[in-house]
Amino acid sequence: MSDFFNAFEMSPISERGPKAVAPEVFRGIYAMPVFVTLPTSDLAASTNFWVRGFGFIELFSIPGQVVHLRRWAFQDVLLVPAAAGTARAEVPAMSVSFSCVLSEIEPIMGACTELVPGSVTGPRDTPWGTRDIEVITPEQARVVFTAAKDFVPDSQEARDLASVGIVAPDPASEGHNGVRD
After folding, report:
1. Overall pTM surpassing 0.70 (yes/no)
2. Rounded to whole angstroms, how far apart are CA atoms 169 and 149?
3. Secondary structure (3-state) at 92
4. Which residues have a Cβ under 8 Å from the Cβ of 82 and sit 6 or more positions away?
5. Which residues on adjacent β-strands are paired with residue 146?
6. Within 10 Å of residue 40's Cβ, how many Cβ atoms?
7. 3-class DSSP state for residue 102?
8. 19-74: per-residue pLDDT in tens?
9. Within 10 Å of residue 148's Cβ, how many Cβ atoms?
């Protein structure tokens, strides 16, 4: 028995693979459970890259202080001015990842490459069933867009996940793999 259960109903997307459709941009105001704060020496240029390259919207801004960007629910980025005299940062080892759907991978790659040639690495398929691209933004942030591929129950990826206790949901168990509190 596993303590894990399918909770895809909490996600902005519940389908995997090529049939998955990206949700609309979420424009509501909520208490953000997690967000990224990114210092930049050029708020306008950074905003342009994140909007045109990644498909974020400018939810709101306070001129010269913050630009709040958003894609889906719980995908929030705050662009803030970098401290005066701050040297351009090295690309960090740490990254931030945003979910997307498979049909968004190629357009994001194309848009980012057009805006900043050489900024995109990938795509690459992961052992846990996603297709990822990595983008280095003009601010030197390492951003990964990750899309779930189709789940194939008899695949090596499914066996690898099952070996660590993450098993495919049984449709008859209403998404909880039979585990109930």
Report:
1. yes
2. 16
3. coil
4. 39, 40, 41
5. 99, 132
6. 22
7. helix
8. 888 888 889 999 999 999 999 999 999 999 999 999 999 999 999 999 999 999 99
9. 20
* Residue 73 and residue 118 in contact, taking contact as beta carbons nearer than 8 Å: no
Q: How far apart are CA 105 and CA 54, in angstroms?
A: 10
In angstroms, rounded to a whole number, what is the distance separating the alpha carbons of residues 153 and 169? 10
66 and 74 in contact (C-beta within 8 Å)? no
| pLDDT for 7 beyond 60 | yes
Distance CA(73)–CA(70), nearest Å, equals: 8
SS3 content of the chain, % helix, strand, coil (to 5): 25, 25, 50
> Are the beta carbons of 61 and 67 closer than 8 angstroms?
yes
pLDDT one-digit tens code per residue, 132-170: 999 999 999 999 999 999 877 888 888 887 888 777 665
Is residue 55 packed enough to be buried (19+ CB in 10 Å), middle (13-18) or exposed (0-12)? buried
